Amino acid sequence: MDGKPSSTKLGVDPLIPGCDRVKHEAPERRVSGCKLFKTFCGVSELDASLYRVDWVRQLVSSMDDRVEAVYVTAWDAFDAFVKSIPKDDLDALVVPLRRTIESTGVPGVPVAGFSLPKGISPFVPIIIAGVTTGNNEQRENAAYAISDLIERTAEAAIKPFVVPFTGPLIRVATQAGTFPPAVKTALLSAMGTMLLRIPALVKPFFPQLQRTFVKSTSDPASAVVRTKAAQALGELMKHQPRVDPVVTELIAGAKSNDEAVAGSFVLALSYVIKSAGTNVGEKAREASLELVSDAFKELHDGYIFS
Predict the structure, then answer these.
(1) What is the pLDDT of residue 39?
(2) pLDDT at 175
(3) What pLDDT sits at residue 23?
(4) In Å, how far are 124, 149, 249, 268, 287 from 214, measured between CA atoms?
(5) Cα torsion angle, 176, 182, 183, 186, sign
(6) CB 47 within 8 A of CB 61
(7) How far apart are CA 38 and CA 22, in angstroms?
(8) Residue ranges of the chain with pLDDT lower than 70?
(9) pLDDT given at position 296
C-alpha cells in the first residue's frame, strides 16, 4: 500500500470530512456532514482537487433537500467550497455544475436552496468564468447554466444577479463571430429565457438585447442561430411599445442579404409583428405586406419562366 486512499469517490475517502454523512438517510447526519466539509474548506491545506466535481454534484443537489436545515447547510458548504478554489480553476467546474443544476428540481419550480437570500451567489463566479474565459464547451454550458438557474430560482432571489449575468452574455454574444454555432445558440437561449421568465428585471438591457438579436439574425454560418435570434427578438417585442424601427430594419435586412439570410429576416419579422400586434404602425405594416407580396411575385414569376 502506498498510503493513498483506495477510492476517490465521494462518501468513501477518509481524508475529506463529511464524505460519509452528506448522503445519510438521517437529516441530522446530512447537516453535520455539510458542516464538517465547510470547516474543512476553511482550514485545510490538502490538495482536494480530485474531489471537486463530486462535491459540486453532491452539494448542489442537496440544495433541493426536503429538510430546510440540510439545504441551508449545503448552501453554506458550497459557498465555502467555491471560495476555497483558486480563481483560475473555476472554469473547470462549469460543465459538472451545469449538468447538476439541470438535474436538480424541475423547470418552473424554485429550488429551495437556490432561492435563499444570495442563494445562487456561489454559482456566479464559476458561471462567469465559463462565459468570459472558458473554452467553447465551457462557454456553452455556462450559458445554459444561467437558463437552468433562472428556471429554478425565485424571481426575488435571481434579481441581484441579473446584471452580473446579462452584461457578460451580451458582451460575449456581440463578439461571437469566431465561436461555433452551439456557443452562439446557448448565449441567445440564455437571453431568451431571461425575457421569457424575468422580463421586468432585464428591461434596462432591452436596447443592447435588441441590437444583439438583430445582428445574430444575419449570422452567415448557422440557420439555427438565426432562428434562435429571430425567436428572441419576437419575445423582446412583447415588451417594447415602439417596434416600427425594428420592422424597418428587418425589412432592409431581408432586401439586402442573400436568400438564406433574407429568409431569417422575414422569419424574425413575422415573430415581431405577431408579438407587437397593434403596436405596429400602419406604414410599417404596409411595408411588411409589400415585402411578402414582392417575394411571392418573384416566386410566381420564377415558376412561370423556369
Answers:
(1) 93
(2) 83
(3) 76
(4) 28, 26, 8, 9, 18
(5) positive
(6) no
(7) 12
(8) 1-20, 176-177, 295-306
(9) 61
